[in-house]
Every structure is written in structure tokens, then in C-alpha cells.
Amino acid sequence: MTLTVIATLKARTGQEQALSESLRGLVEPTHREEGCLKYEMHLSHENPGHVIFVESWASRPLWEAHMESPHLKAFSAMQDELVESWDLFVGEKTAG
């Protein structure tokens, strides 16, 4: 089973650029992680500070290891300062 993760984040007012820069720093190290099949960062044209990650992982345990990675832990330490809200979808693609 391939795990699909969609993370949606909204920056705090005035933190749009800082959030974008911080999140961009996650992309390259995540691409090097075991089990990462896709890790795409998308910035909204209509809503500044609105970011969506579309991810595919070889398994849930490998995604869970990603969530404990040093670069994600470093981002988590400053998340409260940068992020107003976030939502996480974790599931799998179905046939059809």
C-alpha cells in the first residue's frame, strides 16, 4: 500500500514569507529519505501564505520515520510562530 499524505498550512499574518522559506528547506532532505516517493510543495496564487504538500510514501512506518526526522523536528519547534492553522489528510489511493 502506498500512503498518501496531504498537508495544508496557513501562515500567520506577516509570516507568509518566513513560512514559505522554512517549508522550502524541508523539500530536499525529505526527497532523500527512505520511502519518499513524492513530496511536492505548492504555494497558492490566490491566498498568500497558503501552502499544500502532496506526498506519497512507500509505507506508513516510513512516513512516521519522516515525521521524526531532524529537519521536520526543527520545523515543528518554530511552527507555532509561523503557522496559524494546518490540516493533515492521511490515506491511500483507491482503485477507479
From TrEMBL:
The keyword Oxidoreductase applies. Pfam families: ABM. Gene3D superfamilies: 3.30.70.100. It comes from the Bacteria. The keyword ATP-binding does not apply. GO terms for molecular function: monooxygenase activity. Residues 3-93 form the ABM domain. Transmembrane segments: none annotated. PROSITE patterns: ABM. Keywords: Monooxygenase, Oxidoreductase. This is Antibiotic biosynthesis monooxygenase. It comes from Meridianimarinicoccus roseus.
